[in-house]
Structures are given as structure tokens and as C-alpha cells.
Specification:
mainly alpha, Methane Monooxygenase Hydroxylase, Chain G, domain 1, 2 domains, 5 helices, flat, T_SNARE_dom, coiled coil, Syntaxin-8
């Protein structure tokens, strides 16, 4: 799990470097040095993901972890693989402008009259926020959603109890 956290951190750093490189390109500055760092970081990320796969396979096959935990960790590794592929694609797309054809893949292809959500402007509430600020805002939203789900769960539990009591009363009356 610590290797997974370190690998996730590398992916985050790569995303930040790609964003920095794109900012340099928009300003007309040279981004060659950052490209070298990104390329080596991407290789490091690939190596770490391969290492995670091997460790996970070994842990599951020797029953060090349960199958359920193995599946959960496999999902985490799959998410990292997806993230790595996205970062690789972002790295190869060196232009600061979004690639319409590539981003249209996210919506299932080019369709007439359908706007691509990946090409929309950033909202005012997230504009100018850094990765940590966005992550904190996302956590706050998730906590609010969790609180709402907890309230909904208690309401449903109460309704279930009421339904059971009504059913018991009907059985008694019958």
C-alpha cells in the first residue's frame, strides 16, 4: 500500500509537470528540460506499476491477503494503469490546445449536435485552484454527499421499520 501511495504521488507530480510544460509553451518559453523530466518520470511510473502488479500477484497467490482484498487492490492498480495511459497521452499531445479527435474518444466518438464535456471551459469555482485545493474541495463535496446518503439511509430504515409494523398489524387483523 505504501508503494501504491508513492506511485500515485508520482502520477500526480507528472500531471503537474505536464501542466507546467503546457504553461511554458503558451508563454513561448522552452520546455525541453521539463519534457526530459516527464519522460523519465513516466518510465519510473511504468516500472512502479509493474512492480505493484508483481507484488499483488505474489500476495494473492501465497494467500497473504484475501481474494476480496486482492480484487480491491487490483482495482487500484487498474486505476493507476488508466492514469498512466492518460498521462502518456497528455505528454504526447504537446500542443496547449485540446485535441478534438482524441478528446472525442471520451464521449464515444464524434456525434453531431453533442458537445464534448472535456472541451468545456473550467467553472468559476475551480478556476485558479491548485491540485491540493481541488482535492480539498472534492473531499468536502464527498463528505456532504456522504452526510446526505447517511440521512437518506436513516429515512429508508425508518420507512422499512414502519412497513414491517404495518405488515405485522395487517397479519394480526387478518
Amino acid at each position: 500500500l505504501s508503494l501504491y501511495d508513492a506511485t500515485s504521488q508520482i502520477a500526480q507530480e507528472i500531471a503537474e509537470k505536464i501542466q507546467e510544460r503546457n504553461r511554458y509553451q503558451r508563454n513561448g518559453e522552452s520546455s525541453a528540460k521539463i519534457n526530459v523530466i516527464i519522460r523519465s518520470s513516466l518510465q519510473n511510473l511504468r516500472d512502479k506499476i509493474d512492480q505493484l502488479k508483481d507484488l499483488l500477484l505474489r500476495a494473492v497467490s501465497t494467500h497473504q491477503i484475501t481474494q476480496l482484498e486482492g480484487d480491491r487492490r487490483q482495482n487500484l492498480v487498474d486505476d493507476l494503469l488508466t492514469r498512466q495511459k492518460q498521462l502518456q497521452a497528455s505528454y504526447k499531445n504537446e500542443g496547449p490546445e485540446p485535441d478534438v479527435i482524441r478528446s472525442s474518444l471520451m464521449t464515444g466518438g464524434i456525434k453531431r449536435g453533442v458537445t464534448n464535456p472535456w472541451l468545456l471551459e473550467e467553472s468559476e469555482e475551480t478556476r485558479g485552484l491548485g491540485f491540493d485545493d481541488l482535492r480539498q474541495q472534492q473531499r468536502r463535496i464527498i463528505e456532504e454527499q456522504d452526510a446526505g446518503l447517511d440521512a437518506l439511509s436513516s429515512i429508508i430504515s425508518r420507512q422499512k421499520q414502519m412497513g414491517q409494523e404495518i405488515g405485522n398489524e395487517l397479519d394480526e387483523q387478518n
